[in-house]
Structure formats: structure tokens, C-alpha cells
Amino acid sequence: MCLDFTALNHISNGVYIIGAKKDDHTFGGSCVDAFIQATSSTPPHIIFCSMNNNFTTGLIRQTGEFSVSVLNQDVDPKIIANFGLRSGRDIDKWSFVKHKLKDGLPYLIDASAFLRCKVEDIRIMSTHNIITATVEDAWTGQGAPVLYSEYHQRLKAPAREALFELTGLHYTPAQTIQTPVKADSPTKAESSNEKWVCALCGYIYEGEEDFESLPDSWTCPLCGAEKRFFEKKQI
């Protein structure tokens, strides 16, 4: 197998879709930005971070492999909404996008470049898994890669709007990703003045037990952040 090393030139502080396999008919996928090329050896090494409790992270830990589609500047915001604002535990994200399977892993049809990676090491941190992997295959696609700064400038808001087109639900930053807010539907968060909010992912604690009474070992059910990362905020 001959690697196309020019595919690695498309790696920047950008936005990427990670694909992982559960079985021959079930796949996970997530949107990440923390992704870098670590070495230029043969094979090359990459490092990326994936949230601890993500469905896709669990699949990667089980199978030891994953795909990468490097998003290009013409990316449809619906793709970011689909992979970044919904949970793979509830839906088959890949069924909502044009994709192909190669060597058993899913890839977008339209992207700047594509990588197939094999896990070498996983380090579990407070909120994310730091995953080191080798690039087993790589090839280029179409278009220049979109930068993470561009995502914030022109794609973040459209992606949240696209979530409504996909699901009929609005995305509210203060809510968990798995439970967007229905239009014109009040929630507990809206009816209360103060809530404990995860500073890393925006999850709102709404449990029956008083938050301050929770043990120090308690962690955010969405991203795995320690209790100390929660802040009391007006909602």
C-alpha cells in the first residue's frame, strides 16, 4: 500500500469527522478539532482528542481503529450539526450524509482528505481521551481544509440552525447535546434562576440531589469533566 503523504499536508487546526465501527452495519461518528500530525515517519503518527463519554470514543477503544474525513471549506453546516450536535447512541449519523465504506470504515464522499488510522496508545484524561495512532492509509479529496477559526466565524451559527432542519429541535448552548430544546417549550433550566453548568461542555446539572452535596469523584455525564469544572450560573 502506497501512502499519499500530500494528504497529511491538509491537516491543520481544522475540523474533522471521525468514523468508527461497531459492527458491519453500525457505525459511530463525531466532529473533532483537536487533531495534529505528530511525526513524518513511515507510517506517520497523529494525535487527537475525543470526549470521554462519546459513543464514537467507546467504539475506538473497542476496535482500535478509526477513519478521518478532513472537512473542506465548502462543507455543508448540516454535516457539522449531524456529527457534532447529536449523539450516536440515539441515531445512525452516517445515514444522514453521503458516505462510502472503505476497508470497513465510513468516510464522507466530499472532503479535503481522508485517513485510516490504527490506535497505538490511549490516555484517559479528565474530559477527553488523548489518542495516539498511526496512519495506515491516506488519500486526498477535493478543496482546501476548513480552519477551526473559520468554523467559529461562519459555520458555528449555521450548524446550530441546521440542527433544527435535521430534527425540528433547537440547539441551546446551556443544554446537553443529547437533549436540545424544542421550540417554544419551557424547560427546568428556563424556570430556574441558577444552575450548575459544566464549563467545558455546557451540560446543566438538574439532578435530585443538591449539587454541592455530590462527592468530589462525581463527573459530568456528558464530557466526563470533574466536579470542580462546574460553575453556578444564571440561566
Please report which band the strand proportion falls in: under 5%, 5-15%, 15-25%, 25-35%, 35-45% or over 45%: 25-35%
From N to C, what is the helix and strand string?
EEEEHEHEEEEHEEHEEE
Number of beta strands: 14
Secondary structure tally, helices: 4
CATH fold annotation of the largest domain? Pnp Oxidase, Chain A
Helicity level, as a percent range?
A: 10-25%
The structural domain count equals 2
Overall body shape: globular
Which structural category do the helix and sheet elements fall into?
Answer: alpha+beta
Structure characterization notes:
There is one protein chain. The protein is α+β, with helices and mostly antiparallel strands. Helix content is 17%, strand content 34%. It folds into 2 domains: 5-169, Pnp Oxidase, Chain A, CATH 2.30.110; 172-234, Rubrerythrin, domain 2 (Single Sheet), CATH 2.20.28.10. It has a 7-stranded antiparallel β-sheet. It has a 3-stranded antiparallel β-sheet with strand order 13-12-14, with no helix packed on it. It has a two-stranded antiparallel sheet with strand order 6-7. Helix 2 packs across helix 3. It is globular and about 55 Å long.
